[in-house]
Write a structure and sequence with these properties.
The complex is a heterodimer of chains A (about 270) and B (about 270).
Chain A lengths: L2 H6 E12 L2 E12 L3 E5 L6 H9 L6 E6 L15 E4 L11 H11 L4 H14 L5 H4 L8 H14 L4 E5 L7 H18 L2 E6 L2 H7 L2 E6 L3 E7 L2 H5 L1 H15 L6 H8 L1
Helix pairs in contact in A: 3-4, 3-6, 4-6, 10-11
Chain B lengths: L8 H4 L5 H27 L10 H14 L1 H31 L4 H13 L2 H11 L3 H26 L3 H8 L5 H39 L4 H10 L3 H29 L10
Helix pairs in contact in B: 3-11, 4-5, 4-7, 4-9, 5-7, 6-7, 7-9, 9-10, 9-11, 10-11
The complex binds adenosine-5'-triphosphate and magnesium ion.
Amino acid sequence: MSAPEINNHVIALERASKFFAGNPAVEELSFIVGRGEIVALVGRTGAGKSTALHMIMGVMPPDSGTVTVEGLDPYRQFRQLRGKLSVSFQTDRLLPWRTAVENVELGLQIGGVSAVERRKRALQWLENVKIFGEENAIKYPHQLSGGMRQRVSLARALAVDPALVLLDESFSQLDHVTSSTLRADFATLVRRLGKTCVLITHRIDDALEMADRILVLAAPARLMLEVTVTPALRADAKWRERQHHDIAAAMAVGMTPEPVTSAAAS
Amino acid sequence: MTDAVHPETPQIARGVSTATLIKRDLWANAVVIVLLIAGMQAWSGFVPNYIMPAPLETAAAVGKVLTRDIGDILITLLRLFYAVGFALVAGCLIGAAMAMIRPLQPYLKSIIVINTGIPALSWMLFAIFWFKNAEMRIFFILAMILIPFYALNIYDGIRALSTDLVEMVETFRPTRLHVLRFLILPHIVPYVLMTTKSIIGYAARMTVFAELLSSTIGMGAKMGLAQNNFHMDQVIAWTVLLVILNLSLQGLVAGAERLLLRWRPEVVVR
Ligand SMILES: Nc1ncnc2c1ncn2[C@@H]1O[C@H](COP(=O)(O)OP(=O)(O)OP(=O)(O)O)[C@@H](O)[C@H]1O
Ligand SMILES: [Mg+2]
């Protein structure tokens, strides 16, 4: 792949398909994510969002088509993407035997950063996600609240300074207030750092709030609708309401009609 | 195997403070010991002292044994630590191989399961036939007895590793060595400690037994000697020392556990 192309987009899926036991989870999915863009993948449960993300992460190859991340095949060139991409999951997935700061250090340690340097950076990252003070940095995961754990896990993902951040419904397990502040913090942070980001959610409001572009998938992960969001449009309540309705309808393609209205009304 | 459920844990449930519990246990221990000594004293009045010596005689024997045979105690400890250390490492390797090399798993498992069915006595007799050297015999007996415990527990431990954590670590694009260092090793530490805690007393008893059968030095050998010479006071003295040794070893492992498993939330069952 040529150099300008690599600079133009961070992720490219070209007719990527994935089957499980003969059933398609992702079918002929194509999209491109540009540098610095925040893209939301929305879709009902089972639509194939996580499967698409797994192919981008390189934990599984597509059965047909291609997936490219930073010009590399994330599955075959697995190690070459070290430090270029990181993932934040639905649950915090902290290592229970490591303190908060040691958890943040994990990626840096794998990247071969020296002990002193990685401790410094990890502490800085904890502050960036608003976990202040030595006493919190040296707490074990079970001593932290759910919201704090999620913040630590976010710091861990960002500490390796990846160009690309993948987020699989990272905030959905928290209570509403915690998740909305966390969401806002995350969006500001990612924007300020100029990171490229793909986030998965099934909450349309989350997507409208955070993303520059929304890709609506319907099972098996086919692109049903693409919505581009600008700050001006985001501020327009009428526009949001209409998009909300359209997205809900696109998500429900192939389903019984009842969920459309109930989803649109929520 | 799931985490060891400590028999003490439910007592905490009754809302009694730990300090009170410790005090109560100490009191109970003291009562039992005093009763044992009183029983010895009473019994020794009726029988010759090669059947049951008086407590004071026994205390003197403990002192004598401690000054004369301290080397034997150290040798027994050394044999125990060597064998447990070896069984720990070998057991971990076998357990890891069982969990990580699929085609080997059924064969290794079958070997381990058959091994657990072989009585310790058979290993002791095999060792006497197969090896001339006493150290080799004792080491072999203990290794054969202990390795399966470690192997099976580590195997279960690695299988219990959450795929979520594996996937998380993988996102940082680690080498195999990274995965081993940062994920698998720390994960199996509790299993290693739990296994050590449950086998250490058994291992100490087996060491002494093996020494009795195959060596002329060490606590077991000295106990055999005392028995041959009708020194019942010394047999009891050694027994007292073995009880103390066993309890100290349990305490040592429990201390290591507290130190190494600080990260664990304390489980309080209510
Ligand atoms: N490892 C797997 N083995 C077999 N089937 C799978 C596997 N992963 C996903 N699937 C199937 O593929 C389809 C898409 O699953 P996927 O997890 O990608 O959905 P999703 O959009 O992430 O859903 P959710 O919103 O519930 O997370 C589902 O029908 C699922 O059962
Ligand atoms: Mg999913």
